[in-house]
Amino acid sequence: MAVSEVQVFRLDIASQFHHLTDREKRYAHHMARAAWFGTRIILRQVSPESPAIFDFILELHRTCSGAWGSLIGPDVSSEDIRRLLTYAATFLSNVGNFYGSGDQKFVPGVERTVLEALATRSPVLTSLYEEISEQIEARPPFSLGYPSETAQSSYYPGGLISESDITPVSKILEQNSVFPENTRLQRKADGAGLEVLLASVHDGEIARFPLPDGKGSVRLVGGDHSTELERVCDELKKASKYAANDLQTQFLNAYVESFQSGSLDTYRDSQRLWVNDKAPRVENIFGFVEPYRDPHGIRAEFEGLVAIADDEETRLLSKLVESSSTFIRRLPWATPENDGKGPFEKNLFEPPDFSSIHSLAYCSSIIFPGINLPNYNDIRQEDGFKNVIIANRMVTESQAQQYPFIDASEAEQFKKHKYPAYYWWVVLHELLGHGTGKMMVEGVDGSFNFDVENPPMNPITGKPITSWYKPGQTWTGEFGDLATTVDECRAELVGAYLMDDLELLEMFGFNDDSEIRAEDLTYNLYQQLGTDGLRGLSNFNVDSGKWGQAHSRAHFAMLKCLLQDGGGVIVITHNKPKKSLTVQVDRSKIRTHGKQALGKMLLHLHMFRCTADSKGCRAYYENLSRVNGEYVDWRETVLANKPPPLVFVHANTFLAEDTVSLKEYEPTVEGIIESWAQRKV
């Protein structure tokens, strides 16, 4: 699909940056440079053509020095330039030619002759265009997924890998204690064997594992993304000289060691250190973090985030953190044992670090408003985790153009209440959604973290549990492609389930006397459950039957739950001829019907997750997220009303001798391109 219009937002950071000390600015600068040097890793993970398209855009900028009007000529109109710049900004903001949210391919809305004319401006452009001329256009593959005629995945380069190849290799890696997050899998050029490509500075064969059928072997080969990782490491080493404390120095050293060797055991060590670096002035996230875009759900995209803390907003969040245990005891699985939290909750909820931060550099295909890490559940249970709310990303939600799914009589009120409801929903999602739950685990030494002789009762069946995580098994390994979407759905449900708690809302500043009343905030949240569920349909591919985004699938499943089990708390009215959908919420049924339906769904997902019941989870969740019948018609109307995508422009930092300066750019497509050109990655 050609991209013709976007909504551009600047992630403002100047006021936060100028409050840093000179030492903190130097640390932030080198960390930001390290983050941006991960760009080409992400490009390579998205599609084979993405690195060359990236170079084509920046070379075109160089040839005209950003004076885009100078490109207008006999074969290139001003409208052509506008469309091409819109494409370029969208590409750069998504770090590739597939949307970060939805994984659908987008193309420039110009004729081929326009690109051919522009390609003559330099020998470099000519060469790059020859490389991208076919795949930059609207031709298959159209989406990310298992390699096929219509989908591709650069986690499986070459297109010769099938789903049946991936599963046995995953088992082999698991048996040999090789984590898959920083790997890719390809078939050797001669077709005679499989290679697991390990992201590391060091290259060469590391190990060779026999295939279970005795036919051939799997080679583990280091050196994937080596050039980029070396540049990342160089900047991390420079940053460590300006670290605020020993913990920061230690986790930066562990980052470097992990990126050099490819060892995720070392990376896991870095995460144990990182979670204990409480409330830093300059926060960071680095590594192969989120597996959303791998169709198999186990290989992760590189990510680099550097951000500056907002002390005032963080103090507000701390109040909720201190009261967390009170509200955990109100979740559906809470029973009298374990201090009122039940056997499927951690014995002690260690208050995590919860910060409001402003992004300085966020190198990722999708800019999330909130993050909860690390993703390793053993580290979360043993060492804790961190939550961050990315404030300068969050605020765009109140400014962006929305889907028109709320009746005109309520539209103004919906817009007024949406941001605070959304903000606190995200806060609860990150803290109590991702922060709760206890996995039932059998250790490699034969020990259990529960009484295996007298197993806890499953609150759904009323019988003792019969499944748990066996030695070597993990959440992502067992649940595969379902892991991320179910995890996000469960977290969203926790937030939504608690958003009618009057004591909680009072803590947030909402009661019967506040400008926005508590019940109005809850009502708005249910309206968002409706609009978000509908919006999610835009990321469902009817042809493949696959979802392109974990959160979108989760939102639709939640809406379907409320439509089927909510007793009319939400009603969707579809006017097919007028291509309109309207969400109506019955305020009187929120606590009596809506909360009950959400709680039932939440309890099911929680128990599947705690007891490693991937089979039961698949049957339950695939039914709730199945798009058929009238939902297919709804999807067509959703697509007809889709607002322009959001794109973001980040600042850059520059070092002159010992002084770090900051430059922000105009919130325009030209500003986005200029920021990337000056990034020099």
TrEMBL record:
The active site is at E430. PANTHER family: DIPEPTIDYL PEPTIDASE 3, DIPEPTIDYL PEPTIDASE III-RELATED. It is found in: Cytoplasm. Keywords: Aminopeptidase, Cytoplasm, Hydrolase, Metal-binding, Metalloprotease, Protease, Zinc. The keyword ATP-binding does not apply. It catalyses: Release of an N-terminal dipeptide from a peptide comprising four or more residues, with broad specificity. Also acts on dipeptidyl 2-naphthylamides. GO terms for biological process: proteolysis. Its cofactor is Zn(2+). InterPro entries: Dipeptidyl-peptase3, Peptidase_M49. One of its GO terms (molecular function) is metal ion binding. Belongs to the peptidase M49 family. Binds 1 zinc ion per subunit. One of its GO terms (cellular component) is cytoplasm. This is dipeptidyl-peptidase III. Its main location: cytoplasm. The keyword Hydrolase applies.
